[in-house]
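Replying to the earlier thread about multi-chain prediction with a worked example.

Input:
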Amino acid sequence: MSVIECIPNISEGRRQDVLDACAAAIAAAGARLLDVKPDATHHRTVFTFAGSAGTVRAAVLALFDEAVRAIDLRQHAGGHPRMGAVDVVPFVPIEGVTMADCVALAKEVGADVASRYGVPVFLYEEAASAPSRRNLEDIRRGEFEGLATKMAQPEWQPDFGPAMPHASAGATAIGARMPLIAYNINLATDRLDVAKKIAAAVRHSSGGLRFVKAMGLALTDRGIVQISMNLTHHEKTPLFRVFELVKREAARYGVAVLESEIVGLVPASALAATAAWYLQLDGFTDDQVLENRLRAGDGP
Amino acid sequence: MSVIECIPNISEGRRQDVLDACAAAIAAAGARLLDVKPDATHHRTVFTFAGSAGTVRAAVLALFDEAVRAIDLRQHAGGHPRMGAVDVVPFVPIEGVTMADCVALAKEVGADVASRYGVPVFLYEEAASAPSRRNLEDIRRGEFEGLATKMAQPEWQPDFGPAMPHASAGATAIGARMPLIAYNINLATDRLDVAKKIAAAVRHSSGGLRFVKAMGLALTDRGIVQISMNLTHHEKTPLFRVFELVKREAARYGVAVLESEIVGLVPASALAATAAWYLQLDGFTDDQVLENRLRAGDGP
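Result:
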């Protein structure tokens, strides 16, 4: 069994008929649609689906069929930065596939999209063709409206397709990345300054752990504060290390951890690694998980 | 997807042709054979397989076909207590099934075995018809050689089948139980007395945690000692509580935990519960595990 997750974002969050057609196209391609999250304010929708490489590739192209036909960015305004009708397409390795497989898939799908729809494609994150193109924010800076000017510069030639944006569908970023874990830790205090100091201590941008984005915020209705985080590579910066570091920093202010929470989904391997660390498990491997053995191809 | 695990023990650990025929019969019935562990000294073999209720039921009957034909307990001697050609058949709920489903399956298979082979069946553990029959050790006490005398007593009538042992195949215990976790904790000391004291403190039989069996032993080649345990109900007596209690008891003797180990397989839910406890996860449910969502029947 090989499973890749794909979480495309499209620049449509209001017309239900368009979203229904996109969802139907993804399902008809054979992918397992896990979630559809429209945002009317941002005029943007996030689809989550999964399947084998072939299935996921077919589903992305089916989504382009609908989105390129239905969405015109010249008529689009919303709160979220965007440059394409299909704005961004990340592939995430889940089971029985490597990151290299997802990078290869991003390149195949990128070539398909450029040749079928004339939409220029920028590869990003693990699939990026240069370090300066790893960050989605850098690729998307200037948005749809600034794209023609940006793409006239030699350093912003796309990886696939024409050197100018598609008139109505703009350009698309296609890439490969690890699964994100949305992870929050609540502190038994209402001191927002403490939450902000801890967030600064643990996040990468201000000197903390490499694959952590964090901010401190107040949960005013509960009278407590929260370190709200995204963990962008749970194998290299694991859950338990983030939790223990936050707990230690909080103790320095005389504050206890009240609880933590995972928002949405978490890979089983992130939980198994956490259990193995706290239990000091020696020589533990994921194939000792009963369910993994049941699903593996091998017999005794 | 519904998965039941079955771990039958048969009284044959030497004749490879018999073991091969048993393994082939299990696989031919459609079950997924996960492990075969013969023990020549004990003259006994443990099979591990899994499948749906119907598949597992067919596989157990196929195993009886082979074992009742090939094994004669009048000719059998080995180190391990035993009373039947097929000695014991536990059913374990793994995924999408309840303990009640496994109890029902034990009763169905028990009735089948009695009527097809004339082998008396005692239901045990969660399937037991009386508290005095829960423990396998109590049912099996006296072994094959004492079975005719034992079964002459009114309190040892079988749950299914004749009130006397099968001439060559004896009797079989069939039941339902939680998955066992074989869990060891190694201490950074060579003091066997400390390991024995800690084992006594944490095991159920001497006043410790309800679903823990434990003994202290020396790993002489490494110069350390080990608390060797079986956890018989990981939901009610979870891994993390056992680990933390052993760690605390060891600290009382000035001894540190070196590492722990899981021998063989562990259910994913036992690791998820451990991660959730140490991370103080609030409101976490198993359907937040990405892999579980991929396998669930529901869409968005």
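The longest strand of chain A covers residues 86-95.

Feel free to reuse this layout for your own posts.
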